[in-house]
Amino acid sequence: MELFIYFCILALNILTVFLTYKFLGNDTEKKEKWIFVIVGFAIMYMLVSAVYWLSTKNIDLGIGASTAQNLITFAFVPVNGIAVLPFIARSYYYFKMGRLQQNKFKNRIILLVVILAIILIIEFFYFKNIQTGILNIINAKG
Questions:
Q1: Would you state the pLDDT for residue 117?
Q2: How many CB atoms lie within 10 A of CB 5?
Q3: Count of alpha carbons within 13 angstroms of residue 57, beta-carbon side
């Protein structure tokens, strides 16, 4: 079962990279595409890690905490990435090609940041519930 979960996380990451890369269009240089993808993933990882840390700040899971954190973080980074990175990439591509005015580009970015913020707020409470459930399971066994 654990192998299946890791495979699904890997598939989600590959899908996120592929979508973001493709949404940057054919006219964008490969180097610029990869920088965009890597920076996007880094930002998503930092945001999800920060939300996880904030949501579980007062919960002590002991030994299993790092494994749970890694699993949750690596599962939600591509989910958040799929939700916003391809759309940011496409908007950036259109802006770069001159097909999107600067004010419309800014508005799209603001909208996507608001959507990401809403997703992160939902994840904050979800992460807290997951960790509380894990803690209850640990306490019931101990």
A1: 97
A2: 12
A3: 6
| Both structure tokens of 121 | 């707020």
- Tens-place pLDDT, residues 69-121: 888 889 999 999 999 999 999 999 999 999 999 999 999 999 999 999 999 99
Which stretch of DSSP H or E encloses residue 41?
A: helix 30-55
Cβ(38)–Cβ(17) below 8 Å: no
pTM of the model: 0.87
CA angle centred on 117, ends 114 and 121, rounded to 5°: 140
- Let me know if 13 is exposed, middle or buried by CB neighbors in 10 A (0-12, 13-18, 19+): middle
DSSP state of 97: T
CA distance 45 to 77: 6
54, 34 Cβ separation under 8 angstroms = no
